[in-house]
Amino acid sequence: MLKFPDDTQVGVMGLDEIMADLYAEGRKATDETAGEIMDRLEAAKNFIPSSDRARREYAYVLLKEYRSYVKERSGGGR
Predict the structure, then answer these.
(1) Residue 41 in contact with residue 12, Cβ under 8 Å?
(2) Which residue range forms the structural domain that includes residue 8?
(3) Where are the alpha helices (DSSP H) in the chain?
(4) Residues with Cβ within 8 Å of residue 28, at least 6 apart in sequence
(5) Is residue 44 part of a domain?
(6) CA 70 to chain centroid
(7) Is the residue at 10 inside a domain?
(8) How many domains does the structure of the chain reveal?
């Protein structure tokens, strides 16, 4: 479940698997990685709005989630 700054929550299918794959590939938490997550989510049939503003918001939230994911797995979440 993704939580946006306005407290909107959106369920996404396959996000954990995508983040695990990217982490295993050694991907850093960058804007490029956020774009890759969105591409993979869309390929998995998740709806991501097409407007530039909505895509920027998604990228921001996904990058935040991925940073947390990486931090937890690299021992920084203790």
Answers:
(1) yes
(2) 2-73
(3) 15-24, 31-43, 52-73
(4) 70
(5) yes
(6) 11
(7) yes
(8) 1
